[in-house]
Design brief:
alpha/beta; 4-stranded parallel beta sheet; Urease, subunit C, domain 1; binds arginine; 434 residues; 14 helices
């Protein structure tokens, strides 16, 4: 049945005018009615009580307290739960996670190994309540294969917006550092993501887009979990960053910049990126610049916890652990400063740094460092959808949007850690966890 026809009939139900024939038509359509005891209205920052959500096919067709439930509707009773839009993680690496041996991961694995196990992490992520992710960097186009298989209904996982190759300069966070120069991976052109110079980076953006990238990710500064010396230094020139962003724009893609250092953050913002990832060492000038440009901050404020507790055991060298010690605390303090200054915040965890499925652990840290529980939930729903550019499809529970809906027993506005353990997950009208 046509969506329009359903909407018209639903409109009539709400208005209280449904004749026998229309009632009969409705019985042919599979409609699910969700009874939500509490519902978090992320657009208005409010809690609504006793709402009915009608779902047909993959979409929400009505929501309200006076919505009549059609006869024969399949009823999902969440009247003792708090219902909210499916969560969105704007920074994942859903295709993999550390296997327990740093050197084996680098030297004994190929993207084929990664491809074989990626579906496990996709399922865990969805079951954790994250119905959409923006995946910011994967080798070998495994992210694109995973995205497509999920979209085709072949495997279970969140809706993925994928970056493909992380674009980085020679010797940067995106390159392989610290080993003999005689050791080389003979990758086909473009497959490492390493690109230099205005022409080089433009070509890499084109290569990524040609092969399926929904978003462009590049390294504006050095990083933590890599063996180059610095953590904050810029790794592209202003001209190169400008070229990446303008090339991406030409192809209708937004850009995300990995940036820890204060200088690199400002350069990326000036270049016009949609989001700064990590943002650890942002200074007052950078915060003001982000506000002025409307740049989102996507800061993985949980990860310090996991890295300092686990990464030595996973075989990571001390020089990497020491870099983490340099940025962890500052990242959280600077996150709080950015929140207080009114910088736009979207939820992103760098999932894959920690085990997939733990994506909800960051809520606690965001609320400890400046956000209210509602603010953190908005970061993971409506703001995240805005950053990715999919606000018309997801990010809130509204008629016409995809039926991506989750529920938790404990109200997360009272105890935000309840989002670490989501009890009900619906994505595109299909229930994956109950
Ligand atoms: N992928 C990031 C990097 O290697 C992870 C940073 C994790 N640390 C942190 N404090 N957020 O730079």
């Amino acid at each position: 049945m046509m969506m329009r026809k359903i909407l018209v009939i639903v409109g009539l139900i709400i208005a209280g005018f449904v004749n026998a024939q229309q009632q009969a038509v409705l019985q042919d359509v599979k409609i699910t009615a969700i009874k939500a005891g509490k519902l978090i209205d992320v657009e208005n920052g409010k809690t609504l009580l006793n709402q009915i959500i009608l779902v047909s096919h993959d979409s929400i067709i009505a929501i309200g307290s006076n919505v009549a439930i059609p006869k024969n509707a399949n009823i999902i009773d969440l009247s003792s739960y708090t219902v909210l839009p499916g969560l969105i993680d704007c920074h994942t690496h859903i295709t993999g996670q550390p296997g327990g041996d740093y050197y084996a991961d680098i030297f004994r694995k190929t993207p084929v190994d990664v491809a074989v196990t990626a579906h496990i992490y996709a399922k865990r992520t969805l079951e954790a309540g994250f119905t959409t992710v923006r995946d910011l960097g994967a080798a070998g186009f495994v992210d694109i294969a995973l995205r497509n298989a999920i979209n085709n209904g072949e495997i279970v996982g969140p809706t993925i917006y994928a970056a493909t190759m992380f674009i980085g300069s020679t010797g940067s966070h995106g390159d392989l550092n610290g080993f003999s120069p005689y050791l080389q991976f003979n990758l086909p052109k473009g497959m490492s993501g390493v690109a230099n110079g205005v022409e080089g980076v433009r070509e890499q953006v084109r290569f990524n887009v040609k092969n399926g990238a929904d978003v462009i990710k590049f390294g504006a500064s050095a990083g933590v979990l890599s063996e180059e010396e610095s953590v904050g230094a810029p790794q592209y020139t202003q001209e190169e960053m400008n070229a990446i962003v303008s090339e991406a724009k030409m192809w209708g893609r937004k850009t995300a910049a990995h940036a820890h250092g204060a200088e690199a953050i400002k350069m990326a913002v000036i270049a016009g990126v949609a989001s700064v990832e990590h943002g650890s060492l942002v200074d007052a000038e950078g915060i003001a610049l982000m506000k002025a440009h409307g740049t989102y901050l996507v800061s993985d404020v949980y990860d310090d916890e996991y890295i300092l507790a686990e990464y030595s055991k996973l075989g990571y060298p001390d020089k990497i652990i020491n870099k983490e010690k340099l940025v962890g605390r500052l990242q959280r303090e600077n996150f709080q400063k950015a929140v207080e200054a009114g910088v736009k915040i979207a939820y992103g965890t760098d999932a894959g740094v920690y085990p997939h499925g733990w994506n909800g652990k960051q809520f606690k840290w965001m609320t400890r460092f400046g956000l209210s529980p509602m603010g953190a939930i908005q970061a993971a729903t409506i703001n995240a959808a805005d950053l990715i550019g999919i606000k018309d499809k997801v990010g809130s529970i509204a008629a016409g949007k995809k039926a991506d809906i989750i529920a938790v027993k404990i109200n997360p506005l009272e105890e935000v850690t309840s989002l670490e353990n989501v009890q009900f997950v619906m994505k595109g009208g299909v229930v994956y966890k109950k």
